[in-house]
Design a protein that fits this description.
Layout: E1 6-8, E2 15-17, H1 18-22, E3 39-42, E4 69-73, H2 75-78, H3 82-104, H4 110-117
Antiparallel strand pairs: 1-2, 3-4
């Protein structure tokens, strides 16, 4: 039997294969910074699949179609937009939970916390 290792994001619970995790491109973990979007608005046309679509399910997406991005917002933008500030609050709460667990397990040191505080 073939196995595959997945790395699960503690913030969102999405997972990627270990080979994706080790890549240093934009699809890898650890590449987000404050200049990158935290909110993306994408076109999601939906609808029923036609006979031209690949796959056995009733609703399959067209290969290569994806969900084209219409707009995106950085953290600075989203936290000041009433329609998205609730999402920022939820991500903040989850981030604090993750940090607490990592700190309690000694994966984050007091020095790390001091560096966050700017000391």
């Amino acid at each position: 039997m073939t196995t595959q290792t997945k790395v699960v994001c503690p913030l969102c619970s999405l997972n990627r294969t270990d080979s994706s995790f080790e890549r240093k491109d934009e699809s890898a973990y650890g590449t987000w910074n404050e200049d990158r979007p935290i909110i993306q608005i994408r076109d999601a046309p939906g609808g029923k699949a036609s006979s031209l679509l690949v796959g056995s399910g009733k609703y399959r997406k067209t290969p290569g179609r994806g969900f084209p991005m219409i707009d995106s917002f950085t953290l600075d933008q989203a936290m000041n937009m009433p329609e998205y500030s609730g999402y920022v609050d939820q991500v903040t709460e989850q981030l604090l939970k993750v940090l607490k667990v990592f700190y309690e397990k000694k994966l984050i040191s007091d020095e790390d916390v001091d560096s966050i505080r700017g000391r």
